Amino acid sequence: MPAVSFYLADQNPQRDKSLGISGYTLGLWQALRRSGKIQVRGLASRSSICPDASCRRLPLRSDQAAWRLLVDQLHSPLLPPAEIYHYPKGFLPRLLPVRRPVVATVHDTIIQFYADHYPHTRSRAAFAYWLSQLRHTLRRADLVISVSEFAKREILAFCERYGINPPPIWVTYEGVMGEETPAMPGDKQNYVMALVSKQPHKQSIRLLELWRKYEQEQKDDLQLRLVGSLPDEAVRLVRHCQRVSSAGFLDAIRLRECLGGARALLLPSEVEGFGLPAIESVYAGTPVVFVKHTSVEEILGPAARAGFDLLDYASFAAAMQVVLKISTQEMAQDMAWIRERYNWQAVAERTLAAYRQVRRAAEI
User: N or C: which end of the chain has fewer CB within 10 A?
Assistant: First the structure.
């Protein structure tokens, strides 16, 4: 049985806040194991994710900058031997190149988006390092896995920008964690929910500006419940709203309960590689208000009923009216489509097909 070796020491969710990538990695690992078609091995650190006992763990932490840099660049001789080497976070080492064939999952090119639109969020050195790492990955990888057609287009545009001959790119999408227990939509309460963040691309400030005007024009008692951490300016905006409450951070169980009880999830993010919260929302029986022309519109498919223009209040108000009128039958159809398309068995099969492709190419 062929084997694949995962590099996991670069995933320290408590430091990097890369919960989406870690969820993808753990879901894929478990699904590949369940398939019985490939052996899965890995290299982790004391601080990184480590799916099970079959994963080799380095006797050091990788959640501090110096150690992380050292491990990222020098780990390749320590990877468990395999026919394929997979980097689910998408950054290949430069100093000691990994054995081939090598597959990298590139979730997005958001580092370039931030360099272009929010250069104040990181130092020049940090942008230079991570952009160079991404360029190296795209030059070195034998095959790239991406999580949406939107992300694939962004990767190709990145390659064109830097004169890189792009590797083959396979779109596998992502799965929903907890899919073994089918979600049931809870009794809907009179609130909509938004996942907020201090990250600029999440557009939490713009959401509150839109909501404040919506409150003024819509004389109803619909509430907005915020989950997450707000930037300072957004905190000030909340004080000027009448029907907004903040729940802070919620654990997974309470988050599912809050999402299941909401009449809609408001997702104003201007860029995503995939947009997992949208899928999890529909999976829980809650429709989504999202920004048009993003990956979220793609992955929602027929459930993409309430898109809006981030700069246009009228389109936001119209999307709100649409989402609040979605029928139970329409929601049931959306849930069925999401569960069939975004399950880990399907993701594993598409990933296995990518592995077969890269192995065939390596044998030529």
Answer: C
Q: Which two tokens stand for residue 98?
A: 């990994």
Q: Phi first, then psi: what are they for 12, rounded to 5°?
A: -120, 85
- The residue behind tokens 């691309």 is 201
User: Per-residue pLDDT tens for 76-102?
Assistant: 999 999 999 999 999 999 888 888 899
Tell me if 92 sits within 8 A of 141, measured CB to CB.
yes
CA atoms within 13 A on the CB side of 48: 29
Number of H helices, E strands in the chain: 14, 13
In a domain, 56, yes or no: yes
182 within a domain of the structure (yes/no): no
Does residue 297 sit in the same domain as residue 324? yes
User: Which is nearest to 304 in space by CA: 314, 313, 294, 317?
Assistant: 294
pTM of the full structure: 0.91
Count of domains in the chain? 2
What is the Cα–Cα distance from 26 to 13, expressed in whole angstroms?
12
| Whole-angstrom distance, CA of residue 288 vs CA of residue 305 | 8
Query: Are the beta carbons of 52 and 36 closer than 8 angstroms?
Result: no
Contact 58, 71 (CB under 8 A): yes
Residue 161 structural domain: 3-175+343-363
DSSP string, 20-74: HHHHHHHHHHHHHHHHTSSEEEEEE-SSS---STTEEE-SS---SHHHHHHHHHH
Nearest to 21 by CA among 164, 146, 203: 146
Tell which wins on pLDDT, 13 or 173: 173
Half-sphere exposure in the Cβ direction for 106 (13 Å, CA): 38
Q: Are 186 and 283 in contact (CB under 8 A)?
A: no
Residues 20 and 148 in one domain: yes
Same domain, residue pair 198 and 337: yes
